[in-house]
């Protein structure tokens, strides 16, 4: 972030407070649900000393600070009845609709519907899938569309990696490092939050130089914080699925490890809804890939129970900062 004014030309504190209280400055709090509990407690619009009178909060969860009577704005999701309309409009906008015959187009859409199952499709998921449709058409490598969401996430990384022209890193190495970083971002709370970069580098060891590759070449992670000492994923669903793949592969057939993880999930701090994206991702990974590595049968059932009963998931994946609460 680059300041627009230096300390000599910055307005006085009194002027800024006056502008805030008279709604001449709009304050945007981005990613409220991803902030620490201590920081969230500092944002109290109902407190008499809180200066901002025009406030927008974006959050993945419907978390409303005390003292607020907000207007809630939710992004539209892509209903099954309008999936074809959305996808066609997206492909037209990209100038790629002519790549597909009508038969090919509707066949690809049917694959997306099967992938989503009974859940609604987020705009992000539809966009990623559309980009894979285009990539498969434009490459001569014999690539196929993904059959499930974990595969979609990995193919998304592959496509980003394919576009790198110099000093390209092998796909599998990208996957391994991205999955490890993702788990570091979710390990403590099962929510995608920035991880301490020193801890990530320690885990990566000799592979820590790939952090720069993921950030500068693929742009799937970014270092954040005033001290540039933390790292986060740019897409929360990508982080959730990569973390789920990492943890599933790490635990494999370890029954005790799986039971311990389920207990941790039940006892996770904060609202239970906050970790639903990760549990759904872990469930999807175990269903589609668990048999190959010996994941115990009870794991899928236990995850399905938590997803269906405790978290009542009815859509596929949570997109970053999808809700907006606007103070009057």
Commentary on this structure:
It is a single chain. With 328 residues, the protein is of the alpha/beta class. Among the domains are: 17-75 and 321-326, no CATH class; 80-147, no CATH class. 50% of the residues lie in helices and 9% in strands. It has helices spanning 13-21, 37-42, 83-94, 102-116, 123-138, 149-162, 171-186, 197-204, 210-217, 236-251, 255-266, 276-293, 297-310; strands at 27-29, 55-59, 71-73, 120-121, 195-196, 221-224, 230-233, 315-316, 323-326. The strands form three sheets. A four-stranded mixed beta sheet has the order 1-2-9-3, with no helix packed on it. A three-stranded antiparallel beta sheet has the order 5-7-6. α2 (37-42) links the parallel β1 and β2 (55-59). α7 packs across α8 (197-204). The longest helix has 18 residues, at 276-293. It is globular and about 65 Å long. The chain starts with 12 loop residues before the first helix and ends with a strand.
